Amino acid sequence: xxxxxxxxxxxxxxxxxxxxxxxxxxxxxxxxxxxxxxxxxxxxxxxxxxxxxxxxxxxxxxxxxxxxxxxxxxxxxxxxxxxxxxxxxxxxxxxxxxxxxxxxxxxxxxxxxxxxxxxxxxxxxxxxxxxxxxxxxxxxxxxxxxxxxxxxxxxxxxxxxxxxxxxxxxxxxxxxxxxxxxxxxxxxxxxxxxxxxxxxxxxxxxxxxxxxxxxxxxxxxxxxxxxxxxxxxxxxxxxxxxxxxxxxxxxxxxxxxxxxxxxxxxxxxxxxxxxxxxxxxxx
Length: 283
Description:
There is one protein chain. The chain is α/β, with parallel strands linked by helices and 283 residues long. The chain folds into two domains: 6-69 and 77-203, 2-enoyl-CoA Hydratase, Chain A, domain 1, CATH 3.90.226.10; 207-269, Orthogonal Bundle (Lyase 2-enoyl-coa Hydratase, Chain  A, domain 2), CATH 1.10.12.10. It is 41% helix and 14% strand. It has eleven helices and nine strands. A six-stranded mixed sheet has the order 1-2-3-4-6-9, with helices on both faces. A three-stranded mixed sheet has the order 5-7-8. A hairpin with a 2-residue loop joins strand 1 and strand 2. The longest helix has 16 residues, at 30-45. The chain is globular and about 55 Å long.
């Protein structure tokens, strides 16, 4: 697939995915949906990629769904009687959730609707000062999408999530920081560099299999019913990785005061710590 609405660049272990419709403030389309899913397929398959940064071209991150179709933009009727058409933002969110690499959002400008909900399954969010954010669905006569009713309350708490969703109002970067939605606020010309610096720290110092497994453990345990589920996963993970070449290298490099040279691949070497876990089917 040749990308037309995003760009994918890899340098020194960090992949940068750039939403690339700057004249439309990177508004979300079906093409962008498909290209984002393909981009994450590629970053997972590339062992040279240790972390992923997502940002926008131009002055916006993503202005939400492309509304150029007018009032019928969200009218996805299905006369066949089959299951409802799957939400495109949800397909992207689920793909990011399954990523083997950590994902960092560099929100360089306005991010509303799917433009903000697509960042929720990303692991860390940084935002540019002056950016406007909003979960505007109630003001468009629709509901939150991209699995945000699952992600948002877990990230910021139910009360803050309800306020932003029920009012549908636009809020600024400082409020996003106070509400726990973003890690930090930066000048617009510095937000991408700040996000890349975090990605570089992961790429330079962390074991890829450890990162992939820890990421899955943290996300999946948000839905666990008891800490025993985490204890089981922790124990399986420690048993599998404790005997691995990367664990030996991690300890030896520390003792020898040198940078580690990790060799294991998330594609090949990720242990199973959630036996029987499967992504639920859409039905």
